[in-house]
Fold this sequence. Notes:
Order of helices and strands: EHHHEEEEEEEEEHHHEHHHEEEHE
Strand content: 15-25%
Number of strands: 15
Strand order of the largest sheet: 10-9-8-11-12-15
Number of helices: 10
Structural class: alpha+beta
Largest sheet: 6 strands, mixed
Amino acid sequence: MEYSYKFRMYPTKAQEQQMQRTFGCCRYVYNHYLAQRIDAYRQDGQTLSYYDCCKDLTQLKHTLEWLREVDSTALQSSLRDLDIAYQNFFRRVKKGGEKPGFPKFKSRKSGKKSYKSRCTGTSIRVLDKAVQLPKLGAVKCRISKKVQGRILSATVSQNPSGKYFVSLCCTDVEMEQLTSTGAVVGVDLGLRYLAYTSDNRKYENPKHLDKSLRKLARMQRALSRKTIGSANYNRAKHRVARLHEHIANQRRDAQHKLTTALVREYDLICAESLNIRKMLQQSPYLARQISDAGWGEILRQLNYKCAWQHKPFVQIDALFPSTQVCNVCGYRNKALSKRFREHWECPCCGAIHDVDLNAAKNILNEGLRLLCLLYTSPSPRDRSVSR
């Protein structure tokens, strides 16, 4: 199993300059060969492959000597990223139904910068309170967790607030297995509560962005009054970036605590497969609240954390009417789609339901049905279970 460890780095001035030099070289190589691939296609309808770019990069290093001052595997990784971007573009064009998204040129004004170095031999090692990286040597680092397995690569990044991080991708990592509880649960994600489970557990929606919105607006107004490029402008921009980072860290912490608690307490988790992009387009007045909730990240974390523990994670179809169906008699109340209600009474059996609790129970029932179908008569249509 592959696992990633992310630590914050505290580089020296010389190491910081080398990292900035590597960021610039990787950006230059990406933009240079993106332009070459575009020109080659315009001239004869052909494009350059990853291996063609690698061969030409060797010759380019003899012309531009400053490309030899940085890690060579970082430049190759930049070419690999460009090739993956092209493959994704053609895949989306062939598939249709979504914006193709042709690869774009990278800007030196971008706030987030990164590059990836592959581990060859012992070029990347974890030392005592430091990480050894190619061309950088031992960089002071806060090692908050013991690194296990074999290191494959290291991704060095700088966020808009100016902090440096290293992410170590390791393989052959053995995950500690949790004790089995035998419990099953359906999870309904929402805005009133971040998560509502079928056994009547409520997880409050922290709404971190709403709590910091006034402070963020004040900082952005102050930034708009500064002269672009001045020292005061850069300081104000740094303050805005730090606040955005603080909000993102709060959101990520709440998401990890929620998903870890669910995986610890339940052996089977059922949830909806939400089309969040469509929801943002259909409900622009709720777009900020939906984005702040981070439903997509919660589902992603549940998926890989259940896989780590070898527990099934069932995602039902997004079109399943979990809110409208009565979990007692199965009657579907289509009138609920017209306006939101916290409680509703079933016209058929008279049961009174909490909207979120009823939806969570229906999600659990549908997830169990899909799981039974998968093990009894599996078909490609019902393979929506991650294990």
